[in-house]
């Protein structure tokens, strides 16, 4: 049995039946405490999905953690900056009208959600590392253009590896 303390309990209770069916667990709550009971693997996925819901991810994105075997990571912005002005740091990540976050989503194939001083990332394991590095670079003050360029290089490198794994391109030609 896993016990979680949830601030946004309504998001969990509203979707309780769907969560129990999709995750194959039993979810109960007492106040802000949520209890998850089931098979250990299902409990693990349920914990990650509920944490993603609390962070603000839509239900469909959060449930994809289990259905598509995606990874969910939470980064605390305070761990990567000395700046006391965390509102400015969050603004750098979001960008003008959300453009920076949208561009990062397209380049890394990951979903992002920002809540207070935490950022959640959902994506495939090989893309999560790339997304984390991009966010950390932004938090530490790197220019958006440099972060985008680095993300594009990594994405191209992953594509080349994919082709090599399929035997479509010889390693000697690189």
The CATH homologous superfamily name of the largest domain equals K Homology domain, type 1
Shape designation: globular
- Whole-number mean pLDDT: 88
**The CATH topology of the largest domain, please?**
Ribosomal Protein S8, Chain: A, domain 1
Describe this entry's structure for a reader.
This protein is an alpha+beta fold and 174 residues long. It has 2 domains: 69 residues, 2-Layer Sandwich (Ribosomal Protein S8, Chain: A, domain 1); 105 residues, K Homology domain, type 1 (Ribosomal Protein S8, Chain: A, domain 1, 2-Layer Sandwich), CATH 3.30.1370. 55% of the residues lie in helices and 19% in strands. The strands form 2 sheets. It has a 3-stranded antiparallel β-sheet. The protein has a 3-stranded antiparallel β-sheet with strand order 4-6-5, sandwiched between helices. Helix 6 packs parallel to helix 8. It starts with a strand and ends in an 8-residue tail after the last helix. The model has no long low-confidence stretch (mean pLDDT 88).
Offer a concise description of the structure.
The protein has 174 residues and is of the alpha+beta class. 55% of the residues lie in helices and 19% in strands.
Q: Which properties best describe this structure?
A:
Ribosomal Protein S8, Chain: A, domain 1, alpha+beta, 3-stranded antiparallel β-sheet, 174 residues
Question: Which helices and strands, and how do they pair?
Answer:
Elements: E1 2-5, H1 9-14, H2 16-23, E2 25-30, E3 33-38, H3 40-55, H4 59-67, E4 71-76, H5 86-94, H6 99-108, E5 111-115, E6 118-123, H7 125-139, H8 144-166
Antiparallel strand pairs: 1-3, 2-3, 4-6, 5-6
């Amino acid at each position: 049995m896993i016990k979680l303390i949830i601030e946004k309990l309504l998001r969990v209770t509203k979707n309780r039946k769907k969560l129990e069916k999709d995750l194959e667990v039993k979810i109960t709550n007492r106040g802000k405490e949520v209890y998850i009971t089931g098979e250990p693997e299902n409990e693990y996925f349920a914990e990650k999905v509920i944490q993603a819901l609390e962070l603000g991810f839509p239900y469909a994105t959060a449930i994809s953690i289990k259905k598509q075997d995606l990874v969910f990571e939470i980064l605390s912005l305070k761990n990567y900056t000395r700046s006391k002005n965390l509102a400015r740091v969050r603004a750098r990540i979001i960008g003008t009208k959300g453009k920076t976050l949208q561009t990062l989503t397209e380049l890394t194939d990951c979903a992002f959600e920002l809540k207070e001083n935490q950022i959640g990332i959902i994506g495939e394991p090989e893309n999560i590392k790339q997304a984390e590095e991009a966010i950390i670079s932004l938090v530490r003050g790197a220019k958006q253009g440099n972060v985008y360029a680095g993300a594009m290089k990594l994405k191209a490198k992953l594509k080349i590896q994919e082709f090599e794994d399929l035997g479509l391109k010889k390693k000697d030609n690189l």
